[in-house]
Amino acid sequence: MYDVSEVLPAKIGSWALFLDVDGTLIDIAATPDSVEVPPSLPHEISQLAARLGGALALVSGRSIASIDALFKPCRFAAAGLHGAELRSTLDGSVKRIPVNDTDLDDARRELDDLVRTWPGIIIEDKGISLAVHYRQAEAAHGEVDQRVSDLLSELGPNWVRQDGKMVVEIRPSGTSKGEALIRLMAHPPFQGRLPIAIGDDITDEAMFGYVNEVGGRSVKVGTGDSKAQFTVGTPDNVRKWIAKISATV
């Protein structure tokens, strides 16, 4: 594994930076609502975004509203819900892909039944996607896998499965973090820059694939197979790099 400063350019003014949130900027917690953001981190990311002329975006499976709540009072360009939501500048409006979210009503009922069977399971309802977290009910993995597969068969081609660390999500088709980067890179302040993507999970592989294709740099946080060019240890390594480079004049 590398130190982040060894694999990323010391002078980043001409680059665009895309950062995953959970497992990359902040440590993964037992539940999505129990994560902790170090007090200095939002300001340090804001300083770094300013050095990049605003070409920094947080790219997450969380909604943009959830991202904003975590990092308040700071705001950033962002892609939420694996690219189903997009805000291309920190003060821009949020654009959401159109979906028939009532398709998920039956899925909600089915997954509520799963929670009754396995009390440790948490259903995260994101409005246009449903995430099944089984970190606190690992023995339920097989049943979660089967239930989600069955639900997707019923929902049809407009919905797809997204696996992650101890989570399976039903989300709209045609969205991914890679697609989000392509859309962001087409507009200022990202346009014309080379991208850097840092992430930790399966959901970030689409980012890495795109970044590699266009000559950028891709960095995976943690262990495991990946398309990323480089691997670093923990979110703390990423946070220390951000603190150091954000303070550099």
TrEMBL record:
Keyword set, alphabetical order: Hydrolase, Magnesium, Metal-binding
Enzyme class: hydrolase
Keyword Metal-binding: yes
CDD domains linked: HAD_TPP
Catalytic activity: alpha,alpha-trehalose 6-phosphate + H2O = alpha,alpha-trehalose + phosphate
One Pfam family this sequence matches: Trehalose_PPase
EC number: 3.1.3.12
The protein's annotated pathway: Glycan biosynthesis; trehalose biosynthesis
Cofactors demanded by this protein: Mg(2+)
Record-linked InterPro entries: HAD-like_sf, HAD-SF_hydro_IIB, HAD_sf, OTSB-like, Trehalose_PPase
GO BP terms in the entry: trehalose biosynthetic process
GO-annotated molecular function: metal ion binding; trehalose-phosphatase activity
Similarity field: Belongs to the trehalose phosphatase family.
PANTHER family with a match to the protein in the record: TREHALOSE 6-PHOSPHATE PHOSPHATASE
Biological role stated in the UniProt entry: Removes the phosphate from trehalose 6-phosphate to produce free trehalose.
Protein name as catalogued: Trehalose 6-phosphate phosphatase
Lineage, uppermost ranks: Bacteria, Pseudomonadati, Pseudomonadota, Alphaproteobacteria, Hyphomicrobiales
Gene: otsB
